[in-house]
Structure formats: structure tokens, C-alpha cells
Amino acid sequence: MLLNFLNELVRWHAITVCWPLYALVYKTKFYYEDEKTKENKRIKGGALIVSNHISGLDYIVTVYKYFGRKIYVITLEDIFQKSGFMRWSMDVIGAIRADRDIKRLRFMDESVKILKNGKLLQIYPESDTMRSGEVQDFKPTYIPIALRSGVPIVPLVVDGQYSLFKRTHAIVGKSIYLSDYCKSADPSRDEIQQLNEMVRNKVLELQAELERRKAKKKRRS
């Protein structure tokens, strides 16, 4: 209990101290799939944020986008094994250790518990960074997590323009409730894959829409 309290103090201190640097380097411009309602500008209750992955800095965009809420994140076990400092850092931010071994998927139970408690959890289904920006195949483990927890999926796409002389852009999609597409309590592998492709296609659509809106803004300026 004391360790968790101290970790939270460290996390809040880091977020507060790093805010000026974030504002200077990221300068993030957010768009929304539905600009009229700006759905998911704020998220109430639990939600699974599904994002493309360009850099390790992507997570920071989400942290400051939903400032005030702790963003748990599913992270490959390799990151925890880099050093003792890295393990401690992952504990501070609320990272959930995911093993590549499909036989050891305890992280899924932990993820469901977090979401059912009304918290925010982020996952990068590509499982690796792609600096080219091209969205790779999604690993489908997040699908059972969303179905079991009953929370919506919130798709989020970033362009990865992290530089002092560039502006980062991101777009937030409308909520996806998988229960609208799958009524089975125990979906088959094919059903899971179909849902996975649907979510990935939405991310691809949002990525294209983000580029379209950036180009439109550039023409106006």
C-alpha cells in the first residue's frame, strides 16, 4: 500500500514537471472522428484505448490527453527486463506485463479487472513500434479483454511527429462496443479475428482521415 502511494506521488510529480516540455515538443493538435460531438474528448468510466504505435513516446500523448486519469498500459515483458530502473518506471506508470508466450496470459485477467473497476487501459496491438507509420497486423488478445470487461474500445491514432520544430497530430475515434457485433460469451477464433480486423480497419480509416484533415488545414494556412 505504501509503495503504491509513493509510486503515485512520483507519477504525478513527473507529469507535472514534464508538462512544459510536453507543450513545447509535442504541441499536440487533436481531431475527432465526430467533430460535432467530440466524442471521447473526455472518457467517463472504463475504456480500452487501442492505438497505432510509432514510438515509445506515443503513450505520453494519451497521458496528457486524458490528464487527471491514470492510463494503464499493456507492455511487453522485454521492456521490464531491460533494467531495474525500467521495471520500477513501468510500475510507476501502471504498466501491465504481457508475456509473448500465449500459454501465460495472466495479463488478460489483470486487464479485465482494471477495466471493470472503471479505469483506462491502453494497448498497442501491433506489439512493436513502426517508425514508417504503416499500420501492421494486430495481435487479437485485446478482443477478449474488451468482450469480458464490457467496456468500449476507443481508437486513437497519432502521426508520430515528435520534434521541436514539428507539431504532433492525433485523432480520436468514436467508441466501438464489440457486444454490438458479437453476442457470444465464448467467441470462436474466427469471430475474434473478424472483430480484430474490424478494429484495425477503423484505425486505418482514422489514419487516412487524420492525414486528410492535416492536408486541409495546411491548404487553409
Overview of the molecule:
The protein is α/β, with parallel strands linked by helices. The chain has a single domain, classed as Glycerol-3-phosphate (1)-acyltransferase (3-Layer(aba) Sandwich), CATH 3.40.1130. Helix content is 44%, strand content 15%. Strands 1-7-6-2-5-3-4 form a 7-stranded mixed beta sheet, sandwiched between helices.
Which tags fit this structure?
7 strands, alpha/beta, 7-stranded mixed beta sheet, globular, 221 residues, Glycerol-3-phosphate (1)-acyltransferase
Helices and strands in order:
Elements: H1 2-25, E1 29-32, E2 47-51, H2 58-65, E3 71-76, H3 77-80, H4 84-93, E4 95-98, H5 106-116, E5 120-123, H6 142-149, E6 153-158, E7 169-172, H7 189-220
Parallel strand pairs: 1-7, 2-5, 2-6, 3-4, 3-5
Antiparallel strand pairs: 6-7
Report how far apart the termini are: 52 Å
Give the low-confidence spans. none
Structural class: alpha/beta
The gross shape turns out to be globular
Q: What is the domain total for the residues? A: 1
Element-by-element helix/strand order? HEEHEHHEHEHEEH
The averaged pLDDT comes out at 90
Strand order of the largest sheet: 1-7-6-2-5-3-4
How would you briefly describe this protein structure?
With 221 residues, the protein is an alpha/beta fold.
